[in-house]
Amino acid sequence: MPVTMNGVPKSPPRDELGEVRDLIAQRDKQRIKKENAEQAAKLANMKPTIDDDTEDDATGEARARLKAESKLKHEKEEEERKQFAEKFFERVHAAKTVTDDWMDEEAAAVARGRMAAESKARKDQVAAEIRRENAEMKKRLSQVKALTDDDLMDEKAGMARAGMAAESVGRRKAAAEKLDAENDKYKSRIKNTKSRTDDDVMDEEAGAVRGKMAAESKARKAKEAKQLAKENDKYEEMIENTHSKTDDGDGIQF
To answer: Coiled coil located at which positions (predicted)?
Structure first.
């Protein structure tokens, strides 16, 4: 029992209050668990149902009315388009093609004719002028005579050329005379020269060297001949002392 003081109940001890709270929490937990299980069972056994019939409410009625009105409107517009197309093609088929190629009564045609006439007159005038100039040129060319100016003596260039030619002739003549004089001089010297052949070279240094080299070559050749003869004698002696041997197949030579 809770302790009272002056007739007023006091709060239960801390331990009893905790036990009460735990008990309440446990009961709530069990209740929630039970309710969740029942709800899960209901959801598992529930079949899906979609209410697609809106004709039983105001929205469905309005939607049906608008749909019918839209259908009538489209049918009316389609009929009007068909009638317009039929009338249009009737007018097209009934129309005749007309090409207006007569423009002489218009301002543009009148101006075009005037400009064409002016252009033709201007071209004819230019052509006539060209023919006249060509005729004059042919006449002048037929009366022209060919003339070649080959006389340069009346010009500075011709006078200078003549002076240079005269100087060149003078130089060539002087050179020829000098060459003839030198040739005559050389001919005279050759004619007065006696022929002499010096075939004795022993009195010169080259002759002495040549004689020395000839003597050395002769001595070397004699020495080589002597050595060769000695070797030949030795080989001949070896050949004379050599006996022939015969092998008849048994490995014994005799």
So the answer is: 116-147
Instruction: Report the pLDDT value the prediction gives residue 207, as an integer from 0 to 100.
Output: 67
The label of the residue with tokens 């009105």 reads 69
Q: Work out the average pLDDT over 71-81.
A: 91
- Tell me how many degrees the CA angle 128-129-131 measures, rounded to the nearest 5: 65
User: CA angle, corner 79, sides to 76 and 84, nearest 5?
Assistant: 125
- Tokens standing for 58? 């105001």
Cβ atoms of residues 222 and 214 within 8 Å: no
Between residues 22 and 150, which one has the greater pLDDT? Answer: 22
Q: Are 152 and 161 in contact (CB under 8 A)?
A: yes
Q: What is the mean pLDDT of residues 42-48?
A: 79
Question: For residue 112, what are the CA distances in angstroms to 63, 109, 121, 197?
Answer: 70, 5, 14, 118
The token pair that represents 41 in the structure block = 């069972």
Cβ atoms 220, 228 nearer than 8 A: no
For residue 102, give Cα distances in angstroms to 19, 108, 141. Answer: 121, 12, 53
- Determine the residue type at 111: A
pTM: 0.21
Alpha helices in the chain (DSSP H): 14-45, 58-94, 107-142, 156-191, 205-240
- Distances in Å between the Cα of 60 and the Cα atoms of 17, 53, 55, 144, 225 are 60, 8, 4, 116, 151
